[in-house]
Structures are given as structure tokens and as C-alpha cells.
Amino acid sequence: MIDRMTRDRLPAEVVELAARLIVAKEAKPDVVTLRQKGRMRQGYGSAWMPFTAHQTTSCSETAFAWKAKMGPLGAVHVTDAYEGQTGALSVKLFGLFTMVRPTVSADLNRGELMRYLAEIAWAPHIILQNEHLSWRVIAHNHLEVSAGVGGVRARIELFLNAEGRIGAIFASDRPRAVKDRYEYQSWRGEFDDYHLHDGVWTPFSGRVGWHDDRATEWCWECEITEWAAHSI
């Protein structure tokens, strides 16, 4: 049951989206956890690298942590996260020797915040439970969700598919690391293979990439191998 305060706080189209995705109306988990297998690459023309990952996403706070292993024998450990209004990214060899760890900056924070917003499809309880987010209806089956504190703010557009579920996402200005600086570039993603799992419609495959006027340079894609919602 969606309470009146929540209905008054959110646009009707957003409430309807949550109602379609969350069949188990009484469920209000604290976090969603999932496991993934997939592949990623740095950019067009570079080699794909398989990975396995575990992710925890908060339903009421704007926070997530993605931890992946890739490379020979899973020797390369990658952490991608956003918590306490701060983004984090690190790449370590055997989890010990730091290979990449960019300095915390507004661009890094904004990029990680965008990832949290873009992955609402994998934790749709966020729609009702995270009161830190702002929603706007752009058009039929086209929504915008945004969040931020101080000078760092991010927004993501959501496009609903024929079933009224989140089928694609888009941002016109996600920070992209290029050598020693960030450049803003269009970024898009797609979700597919929806299953009704534990009372929630969630996609079991997804991919994201950098976009220009001609095409999308897909750089990350995965399948969900485990999904669960938990109360702490």
C-alpha cells in the first residue's frame, strides 16, 4: 500500500511506475543486493574484460557500493561507490596494490551519483523510499530524476518501455575521465529481460555506454545472477 504522504510527494506518473514495478506492496527493504557477471572495456576499440561483481544499493539513502573482480584469476579488484555525498573509485591488484584512485572531486561525485540514479530499475523501492530525490514528468513514458547537495547535482532521464517499466536511461552530461581531466559526454543505458522476482519486476540484463550523434559506444554490460531485497 502506498501511503497518502508518498502520493502527495510524488507525481502521479511516478507513483504509478512504482506500483507497476513493486507487486509486494508491503515490502520496504533497507537495501537491495545483487550479483552480476558481464564484461567491460575502457572505450571503443579496446578489449572487453569479463567481470563478476556484487553490489549493495540503499533504498532510502543515496548510496551504493559495487565491487568487482576481473582479469586473470580475478586479480584486478574494482570498487565503485557513492556514500555520504562522496564518490569513490579504486582499482587494485589482488586487492592490495593501488593501480587507479582518482582524487575526490565534484566531477567524480557527480558521476557516481548519476550511476545511483541510473540503476533505480534494479532497486525500484528507491522510488518510494528515497525522499532525497526529485522527480519531474517530461512527457508520456518519459521521466526525470535528480538529486544532489550543494554545488553537485545530477539528473537522469528514464524512458519507459511498452510495459511501462524502465527500458532506457540517458544523461547529456556525465563526466568521463580522459587522461588527467574530465569531459562531459552523453551517456545512455538499456535494461531488458524483466522478471517478477520476490514480488518485484526487475531487469536481469543491462548495458551502458557513451553516446554521440551517430551511435552508442557500449562499454559495460551484464546479467544479474542473484537479486535480493533485505531489511537491516
Q: Could you write a compact summary of the structure shown?
A:
The protein is 14% helix and 55% strand. By secondary structure, the chain is mainly beta. It is globular, with a radius of gyration of 17 Å.
Structure in words:
The chain has helices at about 5-10, 10-20, 105-120, 125-130, and strands spanning about 30-40, 50-60, 65-70, 75-85, 85-95, 95-100, 135-140, 140-150, 150-160, 165-180, 180-195, 200-210, 215-230. It has about 230 residues and is mainly beta. The longest helix has 13 residues, at about 105-120. The protein starts with a helix and ends with a strand. The mean pLDDT is about 95.
Annotation keywords:
4 helices, mainly beta, 13 strands, globular, 55% strand, single chain, 232 residues, 13-stranded antiparallel sheet
